[in-house]
Design a protein that fits this description.
Elements lengths: L1 E2 L8 H17 L2 E8 L3 E8 L4 H20 L14 E2 L1 H13 L1 H4 L14 H4 L13 H7 L3 H14 L15 E2 L2 H14 L16 H12 L3 H4 L7 H13 L4 H8 L3 H13 L1
Parallel strand pairs: 4-5
Antiparallel strand pairs: 1-3, 2-3
Helix pairs in contact: 1-2, 3-6, 6-7, 9-11, 11-13, 12-13
């Protein structure tokens, strides 16, 4: 989650844009979001990653939203204060209590009287009161921990959340704010920390996403029945090139500068090319 002393959402439109950016981030970095909640000055995400790219994904989310927010409200300077806090979670044992705690945020803050009245969390998705526009939002993992029967699991989840609305922050039980889980889980994390030392995430172009750059180019070549080199052909009006740039920007975590290196163009030109294609 990320907390800020200042408001990061002024209006419902701000929250809608943030959720749109969240959707982009989940797709781009091959992540699943089990639970989310947006408050006026912070947000919480319970995310499952498939690659070691959480920091990169959150940076993308925060920076893309902050750029929009700053332009919209004529704000100069950083929107988010400090680094986001991330904790590894033993999902099998702590997913239920963590998702409930996240969903209870607006109730604890006194924003609403009942959670069903708050649209800016995944709680309504859990109760099947709406279908999320975000394809990578997945309540089923948590609900299946309660009961295999969907109807029963939804009913029991709602009862659980109501019962524990005064619960203590489960993250206080975490190991040095690094991991939350059983003793066995914590020991495994300790081993990994010792083995890795202080090595940071080192994402590579080849392994970081299920949507590999080479796969995108190959598929385009096959579907459009054109040679690969024609996709990279630097000619004004080359829609195949613009399409490739758009797909790589949307479905891989490559930065604009890295995409620019692939297509021999400036990072700002990459952004413009992707936007032009999206608007067509």
């Amino acid at each position: 989650g990320l907390n800020s002393p200042l408001k990061i959402f002024y209006s419902d439109q701000d929250k809608e844009v943030f959720l749109k950016k969240l959707k982009e981030m989940l797709i781009k970095y091959s992540m699943i979001c089990h639970t989310y909640c947006l408050m006026d000055n912070h947000y919480h995400l319970f995310i499952k990653t498939t690659q070691p790219n959480l920091s990169q994904g959150i940076h993308y989310l925060n920076s893309s939203y902050a750029n929009w927010f700053g332009n919209k409200h004529q704000i100069i300077g950083p929107i988010f204060q400090g680094r986001f806090k991330s904790i590894l979670v033993d999902a099998d044992n702590y997913a239920l209590i963590l998702s409930a705690y996240i969903h209870l945020n607006p109730l604890r803050a006194g924003t609403i009287r009942q959670l069903e009245d708050y649209p800016w969390s995944s709680y309504l998705d859990y109760l099947n009161l709406r279908k999320s526009d975000i394809s990578n939002i997945d309540p089923s993992f948590v609900l299946n921990l309660i009961d295999d029967n969907t109807f029963k699991s939804i009913k029991k989840y709602r009862e659980y959340v109501i019962k524990y609305q005064d619960m203590e922050d489960p993250l206080k039980r975490s190991y040095h704010h690094i991991a939350l889980g059983s003793e066995t889980f914590i020991e495994k994390i300790k081993e990994k920390i010792e083995n890795l030392g202080r090595r940071r995430e080192i994402p590579s172009i080849r392994t970081i996403s299920k949507y590999d750059v080479d796969i995108i180019i190959t598929k385009m070549s096959q579907v459009l029945n054109i040679e690969r080199r024609m996709i990279f052909y630097k000619k004004r009006g080359n829609l195949n090139r613009s399409l490739a740039i758009y797909l790589i920007k949307r479905f891989t975590p490559l930065s604009l500068s890295k995409i620019g290196e692939l297509f021999k163009m400036d990072y700002s030109a990459v952004s413009q090319a992707a936007k032009r294609f999206e608007q067509k």
